[in-house]
Structure formats: structure tokens, C-alpha cells
Amino acid sequence: MGDDAVAVQPNNRALRHPLARALRGSGEWIDTVPGKEVVAVHFDPRALRPTEVMRKLEDWLSSFSAEAFEPGKAVDLHLDCSAANAPDLQALADQNGLTPQEMLERVTRSDLVVDMLGFTPGFAYVEGVNPALKAERLAVPRQRVAAGSVGLVSGQLGLYGLSGPGGWPIIGRLTEALFDPARAEPFLLQEGQVVRLHLVDV
Hints:
- By secondary structure, the chain is an alpha+beta fold.
- Helix content is 20%, strand content 28%.
- It is elongated and about 55 Å long.
- The N and C termini lie far apart (45 Å).
């Protein structure tokens, strides 16, 4: 991954987030970033050689227990699904043979966890949606998607922290700001965090 980062692949994919939090909390590393399969560990190459880094990380993995670390604090988010904020909800519901209300209930009753942050500041990939709900990216992406919009692609939600272009079908918009540079912690969500969605309007 370059001269200042290595990739660590836990033997269990579910360990990525607790491992990243534990490594970050140790204070030994510049940053740790969980990805789809691995955790990227950034270090100071002036202080550590890659061989030393790998030895340290192997020691970490050999003694690491996810049960010893608390999961990220759950966050409650409120989803406005009025027509103006959910332009693709009806089409997705029709595609799945459901009413919009049934579609939303299946999404909000899922066990949702932030898988990754990326794409743009505050954008969250949230996994745990029932993969039986069929949803594909738009054939023609929108030039502008409002901040707070929630998109759905089979098995995953995409939460837009900033306004900008996007190709996810939109099923609602959050009332909370996912990214606010004025906050002490600008990003509302973190990797591995449990998300609870509550409907505001359908």
C-alpha cells in the first residue's frame, strides 16, 4: 500500500471495525481505516520499518479479541420519506411488489451497521439491508443529490453527507446533518456503528 501503510486482513470480516478501533485507540499508528475486506494501517516510516510494523500487527492479531472492545455507540436517525425527498421510493416498491410503507418497514427493521465512510466527506455505506429487496443504481446518475439523502442498492444503503452527483435510487432524506464542520466531531457516523432508522413521513 506504499511506504507508509500496510493492509491487515482479519480471518473474520466482522473483526475489521473492532480491530480498527482498537489499533486507533492504541496511539501507535497515524490512522487506521477499515475497508471492505482489510484494515489499512498508516504509520510513520521515519519511526518504523515495514518489518517492524508487520511484527507489531501480527502480535496484535494473535492476542486480539473483539469481545474486549465496545461496539460504536448506536445512533438514531430520522428518515423523511415525503414525495419530494424520496423520488425513487414508489418505483422501487413497485419493482419489489410492495407498497412504499412495506418497503420502508423492511429497510428500517434491518440490522444496520456503517460499513465504510468514503466517496465524499460524511458519505456512509451502511450494510445489513435484506438483499432480497431489489434495487440497482440509476441508469443515468443525478447531477445533484441533496445532503442527507438515503440511497438504496441491494443489501446496502448510501447516506449522502454532502450535496453532489449520485447514482443511488433515493428513498428518503435524513433530518440530521451527517457532516457539519462546525461540530467538535464533524462526522456524525463512524465505521462499525449501529444505525437505527426511524420514519418521519411516508
